[in-house]
Amino acid sequence: METISLKLDVFEGPLDLLLHLIQQLEIDIYDIPIAEVTEQYMNFIHAMKTLELEVAGEYLVMAATLMSIKSQMLLPKPELEFDCDDEEGEDPREALVQQLLEYRKYKYAASVLSEKEQERSLFYTKAPMDLSEYEDEILPLPKNQLNTIDLFLALHDVLQRKKRNKPIETTVTTETITVDQKVNEIGQRLAKLSESEGLPLESFFVQYTKDEMITTFMALLELMKKGQASATQEETYAPILIFKGAVV
Predict the structure, then answer these.
(1) 200 phi and psi, to 5 degrees?
(2) β-strand partners of 200
(3) How far is residue 63's CA from residue 42's CA, in Å, rounded to a whole number?
(4) Is 167 exposed, middle or buried (0-12, 13-18, 19+ CB in 10 A)?
(5) What single DSSP character describes residue 158?
(6) Which candidate, 42, 44, 101, 191, has a CA 20 to 30 Å from the CA of 53?
(7) In this structure, are residues 225 and 172 in contact, taking their beta carbons and an 8 Å threshold?
């Protein structure tokens, strides 16, 4: 009858097994009781052999390492000929502790990456579409016309300048305004302008609170989307002006 050989794959390696024993015994990784850990480790090796399971060579190498460290710690320490309280012999466990610390660090990183992989598996992506057939339909912006990125950068510049120049107000206001209300307010101001008349972008900001600035910016974008407002700039770094209606 052919003998079936099985390999126990509970632990990923001898360092993984040692970390498990350290956690199970609730001991300090920086001060490992080698005798106790070696005994538990050898019990695991003997259990695998008893169950006729294949023992990987790396487990046997670690067993030999533990036995070597245990024997070194049992040897009497040589007496030093000079007195020095800070002078201590090299700890034979040091190299093993460093290996365990490095392994624990990479094991933690692997667990974090595994969690990220599971989170990412919940997302569904769509293959990119070929939009080359629509390239002819994309028209360039009219002269001095701004895109959304230009408008956003101009808004950021306005906010930075106002932070430096406007004193900090200590009053707390609870009144809020919606985007629709701001659209109507700005639309009414623009309706009073002539075709050639424009208002500076910063003139649409009153309180310079975070909510008011965001609402105003969204309202301007909504008006531009509807063709009821447009933003132009005569030259680079010049003030941005808001006109009524779309740019012709």
Answers:
(1) -60, 145
(2) 241
(3) 7
(4) exposed
(5) H
(6) 101
(7) no
Torsion sign across C-alpha atoms 18, 20, 21, 23: positive
C-alpha–C-alpha distance, residues 111 and 191, integer Å: 60
Please name the residues in contact with 63: beta carbons below 8 A apart, sequence gap of 6 or more. 14, 41, 42, 45
- Helix pair angle (14-25, 94-121), 10° resolution: 100
How far are the Cα atoms of 106, 123, 142, 201 from residue 119, in angstroms, in the given order? Answer: 20, 7, 44, 42
What confidence score (pLDDT) does residue 73 get?
76
CA distance 64 to 68: 6
Residue 234: count of CB within 10 angstroms of its CB: 9
CA–CA dist 91, 73 (Å, integer): 8
Q: Show the DSSP H helices in 83-242 as ranges.
A: 94-121, 148-165, 179-191, 210-225
Q: Is the pLDDT of residue 6 over 80?
A: no
Rounded to two decimals, the pTM is 0.40
Report phi then psi at 224, rounded to 5.
-70, -35
- Smallest CA-to-CA distance from 203 within 247, 248, 242, 163 is with 242
At position 155, the amino acid (one-letter code) is L
